[in-house]
Write a structure and sequence with these properties.
Elements: H1 17-42, H2 47-75, H3 96-99, H4 104-128, H5 132-146, H6 148-159, H7 162-194, H8 196-206, H9 209-234, H10 245-262, H11 272-297, H12 302-325
Helix pairs in contact: 1-2, 1-4, 2-5, 2-6, 4-5, 7-9, 7-10, 7-11, 7-12, 8-9, 8-12, 9-10, 11-12
Length: about 325
């Protein structure tokens, strides 16, 4: 009698041949459901890729049926309940709500990883089987899983035409911009510009680098928290199509804090003018980086982006210096 491992799970080597077949049946069912979930999730924006996953789900269904027939022939109708989570060390699948947050590229990579893991499982299972017919079936399934990448390519040629791929790539880029770039850019602009006045006003008023750093740290982190919560709470992304509010909140909050900390950190330098000149250089780099990002991702003409950001930032900077020097 095989010993049961920690937390009631068996290792793969402890499974009987019937349990191996039962595990394979449940794994194929799970993978088919995953592919169908991806297809449903992607269908509106990426219909061609959704059709590919529909085809892969059908492949998994055919594998499951073959495995069920093999189990019925050898062990009868009653299939034991054995799932991935019952086997120690078996690669578990992510839950549906986690996979829906993956990018299109990540979903395709996860699919390839699933097929490699399945092929490895069937290879090990075939080596342990003493029944010639079952061993042949498992070996054929291992080869089929290894060939799924080729099958995916065949489905892609069938459904993912050049025009469809271009449309999907454009939709993926638009989603990336709306979810990450736009809120991150807004946060970087707010953090970089809005903290200029308090930081440099404090610097020129006190000429104390440590006090200036503390003011900059508080302003940057406070602005980051505020911007993050505001972005996440302002739009759930359902109507606007801007994506996950949590992702947008993280992008906005983190980039706001970074924008302010960029010219607060130089004031860890104890010498006032060295710290101030360094902070001014950082501000110059920040503002031009913002203009570049606007031009690169938001398609804003560079001269206009530079005029908006550099002139606006310069006015805020001058306000802080004037107030601090008054």
């Amino acid at each position: 009698m095989a010993l049961i491992s920690f937390a009631g799970r068996k290792t793969f080597s402890e499974l009987s041949e019937q349990e191996v077949l039962a595990l394979a049946i449940s794994a194929e069912e799970d993978d088919a459901r995953i592919y169908r979930n991806w297809a449903a999730f992607l269908r509106e924006e990426y219909p061609a890729t959704a059709a590919i996953f529909d085809g892969m789900a059908e492949e998994e269904d055919s594998h499951r049926q073959l495995l069920i027939e093999a189990h019925q022939a050898r062990f009868g109708q009653a299939i034991p309940l054995v799932r991935r989570e019952h086997v120690a060390g078996y690669h578990a699948r992510r839950p549906a709500w986690m996979m829906q947050n993956l990018s299109l590229r990540s979903i395709r990579a996860e699919s390839a990883h699933m097929e490699r893991a399945a092929a490895s499982f069937y290879t090990r299972a075939a080596q342990r089987s003493s029944d010639a017919a079952t061993r042949k079936l498992l070996g054929d399934l291992a080869a089929a899983e290894m060939g799924h990448e080729q099958r995916a390519d065949e489905l892609a040629q069938q459904h993912l035409t050049s025009a469809a791929k271009a449309d999907e790539d454009e939709a993926a880029h638009r989603g990336f911009v709306l979810t990450w770039v736009q809120p991150g850019l807004a946060g970087l602009m707010d953090g970089s510009v809005s903290t200029l006045a308090p930081i440099f006003a404090t610097a020129f008023a006190t000429q104390d680098t440590w006090t200036t750093f503390l003011v900059g740290l508080a302003a940057s982190l406070g602005a980051g928290i505020s911007m993050g919560f505001t972005e996440a709470a302002s739009d759930d992304g359902v109507v606007s199509g801007r994506g996950s509010p949590i992702k947008r909140g993280i992008a906005s909050g983190v980039m706001t804090a970074i924008g302010g900390l960029g010219h607060a950190l130089p004031y860890l330098i104890p010498h006032f003018w060295t710290a101030t000149i360094t902070a001014m250089i950082v501000v110059f780099v920040e503002l031009w980086a913002i203009a570049w990002i606007q031009n690169r991702f938001m398609k804003t003409p560079f001269w206009r982006a530079a005029l908006q950001v550099v002139v606006g930032g310069g006015l805020v900077f001058a306000t802080g210096v004037l107030i601090g020097s008054g």
